[in-house]
Amino acid sequence: MIISGKTEFVNSINEFFSAEKCTLLHAATPDTSVKIIETEPVDIVIFDLSTKQHDMLRRQIKIFKQIQPDIEIIIILARAVFDKIFDMPNDWIHHLLIKPVDLSLLYVTVLTALERKRMITEIREYQEKLEKKVVERTSELKNVQERLVQSEKLAALGQSLAGIVHEINNPLCVIYGRTQLLLMQTNIPETILRNIRIIEDQVHKTKNITNRILKFSKPARPKFERVDIVSLVNDIIVLLDYEFSTQNIKVVKNFHTDHAFVFCDADQIQEAITNIMTNAKQAMPGGGELSLEIFIKGDHANIIIADTGAGIKQENIGKLFDPFFTTKSEGTGLGLPICYGIIREHSGDIFVKSRIDIGSEFTISLPLM
Ligand SMILES: Nc1ncnc2c1ncn2[C@@H]1O[C@H](COP(=O)(O)OP(=O)(O)OP(=O)(O)O)[C@@H](O)[C@H]1O
Ligand SMILES: [Mg+2]
């Protein structure tokens, strides 16, 4: 508490407040009070005004409020100059006392000022928390909205794709059938045979792509059953371990639970995890580490698949689940959209974090049974 006024007045207050746990500082000049406010937090300023000081008061309060906006102002003044302060901004004068001041009234005013300050601080903190919550909720809502738009876009695209793929599949089957007939003939020269094999190989590749498109555009209905995610992930690791070790990738398990039972289609979840693991492998052509973490949080099982690969550019993170987004020459850009479809069909969620040259982290979250 700073007291700006005559020494005799300050002494009398000092005695009155000596038993209280408050520090009283006397500022004999306006500059001293500004210096104090600049260097330490102050709850209250008491101005004991003489008749000619009201002009100085306006400047002082303005400076104080700029430095410490929540500071409480108590003004003690003579009745004769009462009207001089009427045109001050409303929130500058919090407590006004007319001379001669009874010290017990000043004491109560100080307590009221402290309580007012405490409440203002509390409201400010509450307001800040509220603002933070609004920002969080707004971003959650934005995410949900983006996901809704994404699912609608995907559903529309899926329908048209399914039709196109059926049209492509028919002639493809005819071409494939004819290559098989030609390959059965014995009198074909070697150069023609080589070309037929190239056609057969390309048809095979195209078939793979159309199958992948169908998987994305017309996903099979999940066959739900009780599945232990921990043992499912263990099985996937056994299946892929050799493939990873030949590429110098160390697979690290970090399971924080022995079991995590989920109601799901084991084949589809296996496909989603495998797609992410395949991406991780492709992101580490020179080798690295692939870690699989499983833990339970609330009523969800979480599977984190993290690699130490190339990472994903920030501007590409939002495009990962868009169909046909790929940065690979041989990629279809359907691995992650298929994953997304599967996980959403299981009422789960999928999150991505990535840093260039450090690696990527995909989290699949599935509701527990
Ligand atoms: N772990 C990862 N590290 C770096 N980039 C990744 C990773 N996972 C995905 N990506 C990026 O996301 C793109 C889309 O992945 P997605 O699996 O959908 O398609 P793809 O791998 O390119 O092709 P497909 O899976 O159909 O063969 C990739 O091309 C790649 O740029
Ligand atoms: Mg992929």
Provide structural commentary.
Helix content is 53%, strand content 19%. The protein is built from 9 helices and 12 strands. The model has no long low-confidence stretch (mean pLDDT 89). The protein folds into 3 domains: 100 residues, Response regulator (Rossmann fold, 3-Layer(aba) Sandwich), CATH 3.40.50; 76 residues; 143 residues, 2-Layer Sandwich (Heat Shock Protein 90), CATH 3.30.565.10. It starts with a strand and ends with a strand. By secondary structure, the protein is α/β, with parallel strands linked by helices. Magnesium ion binds next to helix 7.
- Approximate strand percentage: 15-25%
Structural classification: alpha/beta
Architecture (CATH level 2) name of the largest domain:
2-Layer Sandwich
Mean pLDDT across every amino acid position? 89
* Bound ions, cofactors and other small molecules, one mention each: adenosine-5'-triphosphate, magnesium ion
Biggest sheet layout: 5 strands, parallel
Strand order of the largest sheet: 2-1-3-4-5
Shape label: rod-shaped
Number of domains: 3
CATH level 4 superfamily of the largest domain: Histidine kinase-like ATPase, C-terminal domain
Terminal-residue CA separation: 60 Å
Q: How much helicity do the residues have?
A: 40-55%
Radius of gyration: 37 Å
- Enumerate how many helices there are, as a single number: 9
Query: What ranges have pLDDT less than 50 throughout 5 or more consecutive residues?
Result: none
What is the CATH C level class of the largest domain, in words?
Answer: Alpha Beta
CATH topology of the largest domain: Heat Shock Protein 90
| Pattern of helices and strands | EHEHEHEEHHEHEEHEEHHEE
Total strands: 12
